[in-house]
Amino acid sequence: MANLPELTIIVPVYRVESYLKECLDSILGQTFQNFELILVDDGSPDNSGSICDEYALKFPEKIKVIHQTNGGLSSARNAGLEIARGEYIGFVDSDDAILPEMYETLLKAMRANDADIVFSQTLHWNKQKKTGINITESHNYSGIEVFIRLLQWEESVAVWNKVFKRDILQSVRFLVGKTNEDFPFISQLLLENPKVTILPDGFYRYRVTPGSITNVLRPAFFDIFQNIALVESLLPKDELKLHKALNDYAVTLHTMSVIKIKKIRKTKEYPDWLKANKRFVRRHLANFLFNPHFSLRWKIKALYASF
Q1: Average pLDDT score over the chain
Q2: Backbone φ and ψ of 302, nearest 5°
Q3: Residue 202 and residue 122 in contact, taking contact as beta carbons nearer than 8 Å
Q4: At a CB cut-off of 8 Å and minimum separation 6, what does 70 contact?
Q5: Which terminal CB of the chain, N or C, has fewer other CB atoms within 10 Å?
Q6: Pairing mode, if any, of strands 7-13 and 88-91?
């Protein structure tokens, strides 16, 4: 047991030859060094797989490389989880980078609070400015409390600005073949009600690339609504507060979908989705407008999306 790494960092790799070295250097430059790094080359058609092998030759004691047929982000992360040996698990996307003190800080908080998951904040790549809610001190929460915060857009669903105890991941995997895979994964974990510590500082540098699902509209974008339905099926039927929170979260996503379709002039390509999104927003608009957890800006967007 003494020779096992304390932390496993999993990096799915696909078509990122322009960014990969910067990502790997940021991981290898961590102030915390008792980790293994698993690189999963997901059938990348560029030189990304060769770069993985190059780094593994330089750091054989730290880096393992898996080369697999392209199966998508979820498949790559799951492959890493299958061979992870660390007591704790972290995820980094291969076009992003992390600050040197990230894992030292998150693991210190994990131990100090006996937490199952530690959240940190995310930084815009260029602005070095935190995204999301601006908090000034760390807090401990139950998983259910964090799940509700997530549905109110007060926390990120992303897995990459977090550290997890490997024990709580034993029966949870990412949905293969779906986008928005982080949402059902993190929701399932939080609904088991683990202890969560949330830190105020940002360590993860997130890069929005031109081909990102957040920048373009493809049919896979609409997987998010299937994922909401899946998460709803996990909720106890008598937990009305959770159902209402999830429903209001769904209103925001249907609103975003309407705006996205209109903004990039895809109304002819996705007429059925446009109608379905509008119907959903109209049906739940009254409850959403009276929810104090959503800003006036969101409520105006929902009104716009309902017509």
Answers
A1: 93
A2: -65, -40
A3: yes
A4: 14, 42, 43, 44
A5: N
A6: parallel
pLDDT tier at 276, thresholds 50, 70, 90: very high
Distance from the Cα of residue 49 to its chain's centroid: 23
Output the pTM of the full model.
0.93
Torsion on CA atoms 71, 74, 75, 80, rounded to nearest 10: 140
Residue type, 60: P
Which among 298, 133, 126, 129 has a CA at the least distance from the CA of 199?
133
Cα→Cα distances 78→9, 12, 124, 182, Å: 12, 9, 27, 12
- Say how far apart CA 194 and CA 205 lie, in whole Å: 26
Contact in structure between 105 and 201 (CB atoms under 8 Å): yes
- The more confidently predicted of residues 213 and 74 is 74
Confidence at residue 219, expressed as pLDDT on a 0 to 100 scale: 84
